[in-house]
Specification:
Length: 149
Amino acid sequence: MKIGDLATASSTAVDTIRYYEREGLLPAPGRTQGGFRVYEPAHLERLQFIRYCRGLDMSLDEVRVLLRVKDAPGGDCGDVNALLDAHIGHVSRRIRELRALEKQLKDLRQRCAAAQSVDQCGILSGLAAAAQEGTPPAPGSHLRSVHSH
């Protein structure tokens, strides 16, 4: 199948498929005499595996380790267990961080029960006070902690 067919079958952008090839996650496909890439069912299966792991919020490095183990079926899966245990730990930490963020936002939301003039807005005054008290969080820091590793 051509790259467009693989993209459609896997719901993956063509650029992403090419990126995975460059990163060594997908093996290079064969080529036609005209130079077009020709993908086999094994490419689709591997791409679906990668996409599923990414859907579990695994990093490309984690996926790379899983693929390395998967490609050596006679080996030991201890590395897979360790990787998944570490990933579970990351997810648990992020859940705690998100719960703390949710609490902060709910506490902030309690400062303004009804619409009123902007100069009386408890949320804006709370944000301003918090900004003056300490170092503000880095832009997108909660997202970075949610999507890191």
